[in-house]
Amino acid sequence: MKALVTGANGFIGSHLVEALVQRGWDVSCLVRRTSRLDSLAGRPVRMVVGDSRDRESLRPAVRGQDYIFHLAGLINAPDTKTYFEANAGGTLNLLEACLEEGPPFRRFVHVSSISAAGPSPCGGAPLREDDECRPITDYGRSKLEAERLVLERADRLPVTIIRPPNVIGPRQKELADSIRLIRRRILPLVGTGRPQTSLAYVGDVVAALLLAAERPDSRNQIYFVTDGPGHSWREVTRAVIDALGMRGPFLRVPYGLQLAAAAIAEAVARLRKTVPVVSLANVLAARRYCWIYDGSKIERELGFRAATDLAEAVRLAVAWVVEGGRR
Description:
two-stranded parallel ribbon, seven-stranded parallel beta sheet, alpha/beta, single chain, globular, Rossmann fold, 12 helices, 11 strands
C-alpha cells in the first residue's frame, strides 16, 4: 500500500509514519524545505518537498497514492487570515490535487480537531458527532471550514474525518514544556479540578486513523477519538509528578499570573510579528471551558478501543523528555 502523510514531521504525523512503516507500507511524507525532520530521521520513507498552500506542489505528491492522511495545519498563527489559509485553504488545495490527479483513492483521512466542534457543556453530556458545532477560536473555525470542504467532495472522494482530543505522548510539545517546568519544581495551576477534557494516547489515535482508512464502513463519517471518560487537568499534572517520582514542595503559579504572562507574551509577539509562546485564549480555554466528547461511535462502528490509560500515556511522555526528547 502507498500512503502520503501531510504533516508527517509533526507530533501525530511522525507516530503515524512509524506505524505505517512497521506495517510495510510505502510511505511518502510531504514536507516543506524549512521543515525540521528529526522525528523522521532514519525512516525508510520518501520525502516530497511541497506546501499545502501551493496546489501545484501537491499534484506530484498525491500521484499514485492509495491513501492520503492529511495532518498538516497550523495550531498557532498570528491572525485569522493565516489560520484559514493554512487549515482551510491548504485542505482545499490537497483535495483538488487529489481530484485532478486520480484515479480514485482508497481513502482520504482528514485529521481535524475537537476545536472544530467547540467546547462541551461543563457538567453536561459529552458532545457527539451530530451535535451542532460551535467553535470559539479562529483555529477551531478554520478546522470546521476544512471539514466542510472535505465533506463537500465526499461524492467524488472517499473521505473520513477524525477529531482527536487533547493527545498525550512522546513529542507532544505543550505537555513536554509542562514536564520540564515540573522537573524544575514550577507547577502551573491548570483548570478547576473537575473533569474538563477528553484525552487519548498518540498511539491510540494512530490506531483510529488506520481503522478509518481501512474500514469501508467509515466512508463519509466523522469520529471523535477518546480514551473514555473526561479528565481534569490536575489529573494530568498529578500523573506527571508520579511518573517523575517527585514530591513537593513546588512553586505554584496561580491563574492570575498565568494570564499576565500570556498577555505579555502576546504583546511581545505582536511587536516581533511572531506567534506567542503562550496565549490568553489557551489559558482561558483550560480554565473556563470543558472539552469532553463521546467516543462511542468509533467504538461501535469500527471496533476501536483505546489501549493506553492516562498514567501510561504520561509515563511514556515523561520518559521521552527525561531521555532528551530527540526522537
